């Protein structure tokens, strides 16, 4: 069976302005795409600590741990030889003061929640992100998404995904 790599992905929402802070990836995997913040845990680092560290490193936002809400997991297969498990988190930025600082990895950009640039994001995002952003969402309705990519991951073609996100 393929190796499994774990990642974190953090969505920063500001309900008072109906906006989301996304980062334009300036290098590496998915360069040029808009995405949430996150990455791989360091050895012996918990997923939550990874999420807090990556958010600060990539956009300067220091999230108090109590405001990091678990949003479930997305599993990506078809990315031979490895399978990816992405641990989702949602943060409400109205709950604490913060400063946005661009990094070498990410150019942080605000978007209205009503006009998220899905055509400039990973193709799976349009399936699960609206559910994580909905007013009805709460930490006890964790998403469980399964996506299977066919062919070349750069062209990002989704063969199948589950419906019970
Ligand atoms: P390495 O692999 O050592 O460069 P790191 O720099 O920590 O790790 P990075 O920034 O490349 O990792 O992490 C990938 C980020 O992209 C994570 O936040 C997970 C996220 N991600 C990966 N596939 C995704 C997909 N299909 N849709 C999505 N986010 C994805 O929305
Ligand atoms: Na990263
Ligand atoms: Na990293």
Structure description:
By secondary structure, the protein is mainly beta. It has 2 helices and 8 strands, in the order E-E-E-H-E-E-E-H-E-E. A hairpin with a 4-residue loop joins strand 4 (69-77) and strand 5. Bound molecules: ligand 6U4 and sodium ion (2 copies). Ligand 6U4 is lined by residues 7-9, 28-29, 35, 38-40, 76, 84, 86, 122, 124-125. One sodium ion (NA) is lined by residues 39-40.
What is the element layout, followed by pairings?
Layout: E1 3-14, E2 19-25, E3 34-35, H1 47-59, E4 69-77, E5 82-92, E6 106-112, H2 125-133, E7 143-149, E8 158-161
Parallel strand pairs: 1-5, 4-7
Antiparallel strand pairs: 1-2, 2-3, 2-6, 4-5, 7-8
Residues 7-9, 28-29, 35, 38-40, 76, 84, 86, 122, 124-125 line the site of ligand 6U4.
Keywords:
binds sodium ion, 2 helices, mainly beta, 13% helix, 165 residues, single chain
Can you summarize this structure?
This protein is mainly beta and 165 residues long.
How much of the residues is beta strand, in percent?
35-45%
Structural class: mainly beta
Query: Care to count the β-strands?
Result: 8
Taking pLDDT < 50 over at least 5 consecutive residues as the criterion, the unreliable ranges are: none
Round the Cα radius of gyration to an integer and report it: 15 Å
**Mind describing the biggest β-sheet?**
8 strands, mixed
Mean pLDDT: 92
Oligomer: single chain
The bound ligands are:
ligand 6U4, sodium ion
Helix-strand sequence: EEEHEEEHEE
Please bin the fraction of helical residues: 10-25%
Backbone shape: globular
Tally of helical segments: 2
């Amino acid at each position: 069976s393929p190796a499994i790599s774990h990642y974190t992905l953090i969505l920063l929402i500001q309900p008072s302005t109906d906006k989301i802070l996304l980062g334009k990836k300036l290098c590496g995997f998915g360069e040029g795409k808009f995405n949430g913040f996150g990455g791989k845990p360091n050895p012996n680092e918990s997923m939550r600590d990874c999420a807090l560290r990556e958010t600060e490193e990539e956009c300067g936002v220091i999230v108090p741990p109590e405001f990091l809400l678990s949003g479930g997991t997305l599993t990506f297969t078809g990315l031979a030889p490895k399978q990816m498990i992405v641990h989702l988190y949602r943060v409400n930025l109205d709950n604490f003061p913060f400063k946005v600082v661009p990094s070498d990895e990410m150019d942080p950009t605000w978007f209205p929640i009503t006009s998220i640039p899905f055509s400039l994001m990973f193709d799976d995002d349009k399936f699960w992100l609206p559910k994580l952003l909905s007013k009805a969402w709460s930490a006890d309705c964790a998403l469980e998404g399964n996506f299977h990519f066919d062919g070349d991951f750069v062209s990002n073609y989704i063969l199948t995904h589950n419906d019970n996100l």
